[in-house]
Amino acid sequence: MKNIKHIIFDLGNVILNIEYQKTINEFNKIGIKDASVFYSQSIQQEIFNLLETGKISELDFLNEVNKLCPKASHKQILSAWNALILDLPQKRISLINNLKSSFSIYLLSNTNVIHINEIKKKIGIKKYNRFYNLFNKVYYSHEIGLRKPNPEAFNIILNENDLNVNEVLFIDDSIQHIKTAKKLGVKTYHLTKDESIEAIFPDIVQ
Fold first, then answer.
1. Of 41, 156, 182, 192, which residue is least crowded by CB atoms under 10 Å?
2. What are the angstrom distances between the C-alpha of 29 and each of 69, 72, 144, 174?
3. Residue 6 — φ and ψ, nearest 5°?
4. pLDDT in tens, 158-171
5. What CA–CA distance (Å, rounded) separates 184 from 163?
6. Around Cβ 130, how many Cβ atoms within 10 Å?
7. Which of 155, 205, 150, 206 is nearest to 180 (CA)?
């Protein structure tokens, strides 16, 4: 943590527990062929990119997916799409709260309005608002119109907040995002499947 003054966190599988396979399984159930090719952590079709950059509406998304599974209702598609969202552990919320006394904290997530609404529903609006307000600023891809690993997604945070790249740590579970941050000069930590953010900050966890 030497010389680090700012931390940028990813959301999914860094703070919020998610499981891509659950959505893949549910897509299969509602009739989408080769769902693992249609959507995964590393590969996804353009329809998801458009949703996650705010370029199409929720209804447009549902209608497009519906073309691949015409017998499924919009409710079933929403349920399948949201299946990947699990829980937001309190210990990670506490960790971030403790980090605030020593670092400025930011959130940069590839996400979409459907998933954010599902998170609010799962954990409750009060807990969500407390979580949201832990950060100096939150950058959701569908709100800024950019997804990682696009370097401009990082540059928005760096420039808006006048951050020195040598003083920034970025934590993410996707190697392609880590590679972009490194190219920009940001210090990085690639969180693997067997790790949790609590282990990165053993002196902060209480």
1. 192
2. 10, 10, 33, 27
3. -135, 140
4. 999 999 999 999 99
5. 12
6. 13
7. 150
Average pLDDT over residues 151-160: 98
**Residues 58, 117: Cα–Cα separation, whole Å:** 11
Three-state SS for the chain is CCCCCEEEECCECCCECECHHHHHHHHHHCCCCCHHHHECCCCECHHHHHHHCCCCCHHHHHHHHHCCCCCCCHHHHHHHHHCCECCCCHHHHHHHHHHCCCCEEEEEECCCHHHHHHHHHHHCHHHHHHHHCCCCEEEEHHHHCCCCCCHHHHHHHHHHCCCCHHHEEEEECCHHHHHHHHHCCCEEEECCCCCCHHHHCCCCCC
- The first and second tokens of residue 103, run together, are 């670092």
Alpha-carbon gap, residue 160 to 136, rounded angstroms? 12
Please tell me the pTM assigned to this model: 0.94
pLDDT at residue 42, rounded to an integer: 64
Map tokens 């403790």 to a residue.
98
- For residue 24, the one-letter residue type is I
